[in-house]
Amino acid sequence: MHCAHCETELPALARFCPSCGRPVSARAEAERRNLTVVFCDLVGSLALSTRLDPEDLRELIRDYQRVCADAVARVEGHIAQYLGDGVLAYFYPSVHEDDACRAVHAALDIVARMQPLAARWRAERGVDVGLRIGVHSGPTVVGDMGSGEQLAAIATGETPNIAARLQALAEPGAVVASGATHALVRGYFDCAVLGPAAIRGIDRPVDTYRVLRPTGAQPRLAAAAREGLLPLVGCGGALDMLETRWSAREGGARRVSCVQ
After folding, report:
1. Does residue 1 sit within a domain?
2. Model confidence over 94-130: pLDDT tens digits?
3. 239-246, long-range: CB < 8 A, 24+ apart
4. 163-194, pLDDT tens digit by residue?
């Protein structure tokens, strides 16, 4: 089965297209689901608009949007909207179980890819180009909104709004993730604790972290070990039995063990 909108081959039982994010059928027009949302925004776009000719500004925004689209596509995310100098991307856990990690990888990749672009614009046009990125994970309702050619699968709820607010808190060139996203990617990325932040319109503080770099951890156990594994309690007898069976195996004996 293929998506009627972009012809992408669809996984079995897919409700939404992993490429364009559109519902596969009318019955999937709106669905509650968890998302990781990445919101990118250029720094000082108003100042840039006063210093650059409109055609030059358009070229800059197109270069920046291309950087975002390439980085998101590389990890199989979905660009949901281009909002002037803002870019909104969705990562669906139903497509990949590590979509939160993919979202953070994409955010760091965008920052890295923007550096040579910013250097070129500084050398050729004398302007400083930077961006901020916010990442948040949480429940949304995703479904078609708009009409005609403007029809698009849009997530509603506080999750995209919090991602946008986190972007506004970030320093230029920084990726700021919420505590909800950090809980999903901890061990896979080195992060600096920024502390609770008051988010306008949200009646509770949101824990925030600046994402620094990937740790290189791949398996879940390796990532969990970086944060410290929980001690085994009351398992002495089972561990002794397993060690005895392992020793017997080294002597050539075969054993099957069941620990309850």
Report:
1. no
2. 667 889 999 999 999 999 999 999 999 999 989 999 9
3. none
4. 999 999 999 999 999 999 999 999 999 999 99
Range of the domain at 51: 31-229
The DSSP code sequence of 112-172 is HHHHHHHHHHHHHH-----EEEEEEEEEEEEEEES-GGG-EEEEESHHHHHHHHHHHHSPT
Q: For residue 174, give the amino acid letter.
A: A
Per the domain annotation, does 15 fall within a domain?
A: no
220: nearest Cα among 176, 192, 184? 184
Number of domains the chain contains: 2
d(CA 187, CA 11): 29
Cα(178)–Cα(194) distance, rounded to whole angstroms?
A: 10
Same-domain check for residues 194 and 248: no
Model pLDDT, residue 234 = 74
Q: Is 5 domain-assigned? A: no
Whether 88 and 107 share a structural domain:
yes
Nearest to 137 by CA among 158, 152, 151, 120: 158
> Do 148 and 243 lie in a common domain?
no
In a domain, 43, yes or no: yes
**Confidence check: pLDDT of 28 > 60:** no
Q: How far is C-alpha 18 from the chain's CA centre?
A: 14
- Six-digit token pair at 19? 């490429």
Based on the fold, state whether residues 242 and 142 are members of the same structural domain: no
Q: Do 148 and 237 fall within a single domain?
A: no
In this model, does residue 16 exceed pLDDT 80? no
The verdict on 62 and 148 lying in the same domain is: yes
CA end-to-end distance (rounded Å), the chain: 44
DSSP H or E segment with residue 90: strand 86-91
| CA dist., res. 34 & res. 105, Å (int) | 18
